[in-house]
Design goal:
The complex is a heterodimer of chains A (about 230) and B (about 300).
Chain A lengths: L1 E10 L3 E11 L4 E5 L6 H8 L7 E6 L2 E2 L5 H8 L2 E5 L10 H11 L4 H14 L15 H13 L5 E5 L7 H16 L3 E6 L2 H7 L2 E6 L2 E6 L7
Parallel strand pairs in A: 3-8, 3-9, 6-7, 7-8
Antiparallel strand pairs in A: 1-2, 1-4, 4-5, 9-10
Chain B lengths: L1 H18 L1 H37 L3 E5 L5 H12 L4 E7 L1 H11 L4 H10 L7 E6 L5 H7 L5 H5 L4 E4 L1 H46 L2 H9 L4 H42 L3 H7 L1 H28 L2
Helix pairs in contact in B: 1-10, 2-8, 2-10, 2-12, 8-12, 10-11, 10-12
Classes of the chains: A alpha/beta (about 230), B alpha+beta (about 300).
Amino acid sequence: MINFQDVSKIYPKDSPALLDINLKIKSGEFVSIVGHSGAGKTTLLKLILAEDKPTKGRVLFEDVDIHKLSRGSLLKLRKRIGMVFQDFKLLSSKTAYENIAFAMEAVGKTDDEIYTDVPHVLDLVDLSDKMDSFPSQMSGGERQRLAIARAIINQPEVIIADEPTGNLDPINTYEVVQILKKINDLGTTVILTTHNRGVVESIGKRVITMEGGRIVRDDKDGKYLI
Amino acid sequence: MFLLDIKRIIRSGVLNFYRNGIVSLASTLVLWVTLSVVLGILFFQAVLTNSLEQVREKVDITVYFVPDASEEKILEFKDIIQKLPEVESASYISADIALAQFKERKKDDELTLQALEEIGENPLGGSINIKARDTTQYEAIANSLSPESELVKSNENIIYNINYNKNKSIIDRLNNIIVSARALGVALTLVLTIISVIITFNTIRLTIFISKEEIGVMRLVGANSRYVTGPFMVEGMICGIMAAFLAMASFYPVSVWLSNKMTDFLGVDMLEYYVSHFIPLLIIVLVFGIVLGAISSALAVRKYLSK
């Protein structure tokens, strides 16, 4: 599904962020990417979203070079990817319901679909009682669950979660990981970056370890070894 | 789909306006100041136009006829004058009316009235008072009435005097004043409008700066430019509408005060002007407010869309 072919990303003043990355992620996989700060995890995700261009090599999404897509095609591609961030990136002036409805409106869903799907997805992340709350009225864990609900509402093929548990306590971390596992069980590819050893080991799936912009380990059985 | 988008954009804009209470209020107040400047300029233009009109009314060319000129000949002359394209009106004042007006003017001057009595007959002739369509056209009319012109030559025996040359310097000076006053009005309008537009634009830009993060998030969840910009434009338009009504409302007491205290000085009853021009004034400030609010918002959001 996602294929990195000899990808390097060198920022100005010869500052390498990624070096000679060759990586294949299959549809339906749950991949955890681990490594210290500056190891290149976030740059890797940015290249998948075409927020940044590689200095060398190609990034393919279903055999299409992401970085050769037109602006319109890129928007369409991004609608096939759901994103979850450490700092949630919710719309603070909208309620929980409206945050999710906005993501549906943006891809042109009808009002009927919104009325039906939003309560359902809020129920899935256990936020039914927070439907009319603003993000500022919710806890960190609730906000992250809302961000996940928004990411999955349009049934994307891939969920990219960049340090989603970075700001959460252990209980909320556990809940978020369980939700991501459930999403993966339903067939969605999940790419997760994290520092948290416990998270990686509780998932027990493929783990890619990065160091200095290179992939130094690719384990199928969920080991966090740094 | 397009209508559904429009409906959602309007709903979102209205909600944002309501929820961002203080920020919306700040934008509305700045727009109110801008629209008040616009209204002030319109009031100033009304006073200026009226004053120029009043001065213009006082300028004319008068052809005086000898006392024994027949009325028939004078009216013939008037008909010819009236056909000149530059002439707006030509009014005939008979010798009798001229005498009555003279007596009225000199009613306190016993000596003059006594002298008039002693003469016994009317020493004044009739006259034709000519008004041009525009003050710049008096020169052209004066040329038609020059001693060399066919019209004057053929009526030499009845024309006593034409006062254009005496009035020429006043007319020229008036023309200069009118041109300068108009230029000043336009310059003042332009400068004040530009300043207030810049202030409004910057205020709205600051209010949208607060939403910079939100704009980025909207883009991340796949919203296109129109869908991100639309609600901000609607918000700006609502501020413009509110500010327009606020400006019109605040100019009512101003008009009442000007009407009570300044009508003689200004030469215009501003309350009468406000009431009789209410709809056009409202439309002007509404359109100005809506366009300014929408364009300022669109430009401010565009800056963050590309990031």
